[in-house]
Design a protein that fits this description.
Blueprint (H helix, E strand, L loop, with lengths): L2 H9 L5 H11 L6 E6 L4 H13 L4 E5 L9 H4 L7 E5 L5 H11 L2 E6 L8 E2 L8 E6 L8 H5 L3 E4 L11 H18 L8 H15 L3 H10 L4
Parallel strand pairs: 1-2, 1-6, 2-3, 4-6, 4-7, 5-7
Helix pairs in contact: 1-8, 3-7
Length: 227
């Protein structure tokens, strides 16, 4: 076993067999092929509901741009979902959008932005291409994505609507999008699963967030030479 594998095996002793089984069940269905991006979301209950949906639909990574509004989590809505996700925050003022998108593109993601009026590719959540890894961004509740984010997008996407109201609440839009895209992902011939190393990294995060004083246990593990 690698050093990380040995550490995971050690930490697993401090979690019930039921919890370890649940960790293994959930990690097998987690993906980093699709990521969610949020720009300047300012309503805590909406922001928190998006996290909860990410966890429920098996999407591990959330990229949060905070150059206008701080992203806060409402624990009564999120119900602890933030413990199981990887939150990447970008709050470097007017450089936030560029820093976020550059990091995603360097890792092979195409950037899709939800938009009511821009849709040069005529994509909906039902037909958006999944041939490349996808980072799906949502803008503010009132104004949508900023012009800078839209200018750097690879594609735009809409959610089909049949009524008079022009848009969904952002937490609803995110949940609908994740449901459709994650369902498609698992039906198509796409390697959406986590690599072994990614699984280890995420499981280590989960153990650290679950076990009381996990950092002290890790220090003891290191003191004993990894045994």
């Amino acid at each position: 076993m690698t050093g990380k594998s040995e550490l995971l095996n050690y930490l697993s002793r401090f979690v019930t067999p039921e919890r370890n089984k649940r960790f293994n069940e959930v990690i097998a269905k987690r993906t980093r092929y699709v990521a969610i991006g949020l720009e300047n979301i300012y309503q805590p209950h909406n922001a928190s509901a998006v996290l909860r949906s990410c966890d429920c639909f098996g999407i591990q990574d959330v990229h949060i741009i905070e150059n206008g509004n701080r992203y806060s989590v409402n624990p009564d809505v999120a119900l602890g979902a933030e413990k199981w996700l990887t939150l990447n925050r970008y709050d470097s003022g007017n450089k936030s959008v560029g820093a976020c998108l550059d990091a995603l593109k360097e890792n092979g993601y195409k950037i899709a932005v939800t938009s009511l009026h821009k849709n040069k590719n005529n994509y909906t959540i039902e037909n958006i291409t999944l041939k490349d890894k996808l980072a799906l961004f949502f803008g503010t509740e009132m104004h949508g994505a900023t012009a800078e984010l839209e200018s750097k997008a690879d594609m735009f996407v809409k959610i089909p609507m049949l009524g008079f109201t022009e848009s969904f609440n952002i937490s609803v839009a995110a949940a609908l999008s994740m449901y459709v895209i994650s369902s498609r992902l698992r039906k198509e011939n796409i390697a959406w699963q986590l690599s072994g190393g990614q699984k280890e990294d995420i499981l280590l995060q989960w153990y650290r967030n679950t076990i009381p004083k996990a950092e002290l246990l890790e220090k003891e593990f290191e003191r004993r030479g990894g045994n």
